[in-house]
Design goal:
Layout lengths: L8 E5 L2 E5 L9 E5 L3 H13 L3 E5 L2 H10 L4 E4 L8 H11 L6 E5 L4 H9 L4 E4 L4 H12 L12
Parallel strand pairs: 3-4, 3-5, 5-6, 6-7
Antiparallel strand pairs: 1-2
Helix pairs in contact: 2-3
Length: about 160
């Protein structure tokens, strides 16, 4: 049974069980996916949906700011390079209007230390390199929302 995982529910993706943090299941688990590439939005949205999360999408930063101010989200996955308004400016605006708002995570092809520093400087809390895999996304969700519950690693590091 799930005795070892009292605060988690299980979903399945590609035949593998996924243990979801309690904070990220149920009616309040809303994620905003922001990316100007339709394929990236679709892939990430499907992955999150398979994890049992409700997904909203935005095509650029200005749309992301609008959506974030309209309704609460538990997590925002933000591309950095987009037309209209990039992810950096969008993050600054969201932080300005919603201090203490949801975690904003950069999903970007740029993953140098300089890029990471720029993301963190504008108020993003983590940088996940593209292409974003299920394993990497699940590891982030687990660490961020419910440390250790679904960790398959033993011990610290």
């Amino acid at each position: 049974g799930l005795g070892r995982y009292p605060s988690a529910i299980v979903a399945h993706h590609e035949g593998e069980p996924l243990f979801l943090p309690a904070e990220l299941h149920g009616a309040a688990s809303r994620v905003l996916v922001v990316d100007d590439d339709a394929t990236n939005r679709l892939v990430l949205s499907r992955l999150l949906a398979r994890l049992g999360l409700e997904v909203e999408r935005a095509e650029h930063g200005a749309q992301a700011v609008e959506r974030a101010l309209e309704a609460p989200f538990d997590l925002i996955l933000m591309d950095c390079e987009m037309p209209v308004m990039d992810g950096f400016e969008a993050t600054l605006k969201i932080r300005e209007h919603l201090p203490g708002g949801p975690p904003i995570v950069a999903c970007t092809a740029y993953s140098s230390l300089e890029d990471r520093a720029r993301c963190l400087a504008v108020g993003m809390e983590e940088v996940l390199a593209k292409p974003l895999t299920r394993a990497r996304l699940e590891a982030y969700l687990d660490a961020r929302f419910d440390r250790g519950v679904s960790s398959s690693c033993s011990g610290g590091g």
